[in-house]
Amino acid sequence: MHCHLFTPAVEALVADHPLKLCEAQDRLRLLGSESVRTNQAMYQTISKKLHDIDLRLADMERLRIDLQVLSPSPTQFYYWADEALSEEIVELQNEHIASVCHNNPTRFAGLGAISLQYPELATRQLRGIQEKHGLLGVEISSDPTGNGLDDPLLEPFWTEAARRGLVIFLHPLGTSLGERVNRYYLSNIIGQPLETTVALGQMIYGGVFDRHPLLKVLAAHGGGFLPYYSGRFDHGYVVRPESRVNVQAPSKYLSRIFFDTVVYDHLTLRHLVDRVGISQILAGTDYPFDMGEYQLHKLVGAVPEIDHKAGAAILGGNAMRLLGLTESQVPKGAAQ
Q: What is the dihedral of CA 142, 147, 150, 151, to 10 degrees?
């Protein structure tokens, strides 16, 4: 449920845009020179895997993955684009993902891109994502509008996504911590999980899940820090009146959110199981990035509380339920 597909046509489209040309300098400032160099080397290694389907299929065989639910590469969110350009970027990505899924229907399903920095446009795009492209949801970052995911302007988007039963995959790119984390790769190690935590906190405290009870949200990287520090969220809800917009204590919403397994450590996964329950955990790798978790079966198997039935749910059954897939729509073994 957590793997990415790069769309080369998007890069060709934005190559000469002034804001695209500024990215290199921004990365240097926000990541630091050492991480920039390491990322450049990484991309030399993984660039083909990001868009070459034959290489991807070979890796899936090696990793014992029957079906990937493709989502856009977060590096191609391009929320800086104006409305017309953003619409074009999103359409290219969604056409590409849909084409790969159409050509390999037993190996891939898809989540699309969305122009969420323009909420009215994004709400309209949901129809095409589902009805034209046959995609099962969308991937979003943690703060596309600059006003948080509790931004009132996003209400029609949440309403329409919930009405259509589309999955919202929350996957941040970068962090608002800025230059404080521009060394040791803390921009990703700490920054991205923190972005997920902030975004989920805003949605919970802001009442988004109360107003949209059918909303399907999958949080990347094990949900950031929320599942592991939910007691503090609850305490604030009890003692601080400004933290009480939502109907229930924040920890009660953990059973409404889905979380991937990209947590690397079996003790962390065990705690996630304890906090949110087997039914809310879905397999993910973050393929093909170096921060991915590629010992998926070993990780799940190392948690004593995850028996064969629970393991089958995490490795396939829960995703099928979330996405509304039947056994006939996935390769034999995907739900085993």
A: -130
Q: Which residues touch 12 (CB under 8 Å, ≥6 apart)? A: none
Name the burial class of residue 334, with classes exposed (0-12), middle (13-18) and buried (19+) by CB atoms within 10 angstroms of its CB: buried
The neighbour count for residue 324, using CB atoms within 10 Å, is 12
Q: Which pLDDT belongs to residue 327?
A: 72
Long-range CB contact pairs, 307-311, < 8 A, 24+? 310/273, 310/278
Write out the two tokens for 181.
């984390």
Nearest to 144 by CA among 171, 162, 165: 171
What distance lies between CA 336 and its chain's CA centroid?
A: 24
Residue 190 in this model has a pLDDT that exceeds 60: yes
Answer yes or no: pTM beyond 0.90.
Answer: yes
Other beta carbons less than 10 A from residue 270's beta carbon: 16
CB 265 within 8 A of CB 302: no
Q: What is the DSSP letter of 214?
A: T
Q: Strand, helix or coil at 221?
A: helix
From the list 168, 279, 256, 144, the residue with the least C-alpha distance to 210 is 256
Q: Give the pLDDT mean for 164-186.
A: 95
The β-bridge relationship of strands 167-170 and 137-140 is parallel
257 secondary structure, DSSP code: E
Residue 49 has pLDDT above 70, yes or no: yes
* Residue 94 tokens, joined: 């969604």
Element (H, E) at 151: none
Q: Please give the mean pLDDT across all residues of the chain.
A: 95
77 near 173, Cβ under 8 Å? Answer: yes
**Banded model confidence at residue 256, pLDDT cuts 50, 70, 90:** very high
Confidence check: pLDDT of 334 > 60: no
- The CA-to-CA distance between both ends of the chain, in Å, stands at 16
